[in-house]
Amino acid sequence: MTDNELLLAISEMMDTKLDAKLKPLENRLKHIEVDLLENNAIPRLNTIEACYTSTFNRYKDSVEDYEAIKQDIAIMKKVIAEHSEKLQKLA
């Protein structure tokens, strides 16, 4: 067996042993990542989604009311301006 073949064989043995030791760590890290997502990130995202959804529904249902209020305020401004002119003429 030549030196290169011997070095290659040693390298393959070390790689095999290293892979055998790293695989369980890799699997454990994946489980930790999944646990973090399932127990932390996803519930928080669900809470944020629920908040935005409820806010959207509240505003969606009252858009027509806002338009009516804007029209009423425009009319009130016009009437107040007219009344102010009339009151100034009387004074």
The counted number of beta strands is 0
Helix content: over 70%
Q: Characterize the biggest β-sheet.
A: none
Mean pLDDT across the residues is: 90
Q: What fraction strand?
A: under 5%
Structural class: mainly alpha
Q: What is the global morphology?
A: rod-shaped
What separation lies between the terminal Cα atoms?
A: 119 Å
Number of alpha- plus pi-helical segments:
1
What is the radius of gyration?
37 Å
What are the low-pLDDT stretches, counting only 5+ consecutive residues below 50? none
User: Assembly type of the shown chains?
Assistant: single chain
Order of helices and strands: H
Q: How would you sum up this structure, described in words?
A:
The structure is a single chain. By secondary structure, this protein is mostly helical. It is built from 1 helix and no strands. It is rod-shaped. The chain starts with a helix and ends with a helix. The mean pLDDT is about 90.
